[in-house]
Specification:
It contains 2 helices and 2 strands. The protein is an alpha+beta fold. The chain is extended and about 40 Å long. Pfam families: DUF5522 (PF17653).
């Protein structure tokens, strides 16, 4: 199945840090629709991933 074409960035999708890095916002991630697994700062799925990681640790 072919992947969907990337959508252009919209106002509010990112901001620049004082160091010049582009940081994607939660708005962008929600529009994207899934977690990329890179540990993004504003990932709306971060809590679920952290919970899964905590449950899969050594017992």
């Amino acid at each position: 199945m072919p992947s969907a074409a990337p959508q252009p960035l919209q106002p509010g999708d990112f901001y620049l840090t004082p160091e010049g890095y582009m940081v994607f916002t939660e708005q962008y991630h929600r529009r994207r629709g899934s977690c990329c697994g890179n540990g993004c700062r504003h990932c709306p799925w971060q809590a679920a991933r952290d919970k899964k990681k905590a449950n899969s640790g050594p017992k």
